Amino acid sequence: MTGTNSFIEHLYCPKCGGQYQRGKLAQLCPCGSPLLVKYDLAGAKKFIHKDELKGRLPSLWRYKELLPVENEENIVTLGEGLTPILRLPKAGADSDIPELYLKDEGLAPGGTFKARGAAVGVSMARELGVKTLVMPTNGNAGAAWAVYGARAGLDVKIIMPEAAPLITRHECAAAGAELHLVKGLISDCGRITARSVARHGWYDASTLKEPYRIEGKKTMGFEIAEQLDWEIPEVILYPAGGGVGIIGIYKGFNELRELGWIGERQARLVAVQAAGCAPIVKAFEEGRPESTLFENPSTVAFGLNVPKALGDFLVLEAIRATKGCAVAVSDNEILSSLSELAQKEGLFVCPEGAALYAAGKALRRKGWIGRGDRVLLLNTGSGLKYPDILGFTPSYIDPEGEL
Question: What domains can be seen in the chain, in order of their start residue?
Answer without folding.
Answer: 85-112+213-385 (3.40.50.1100)
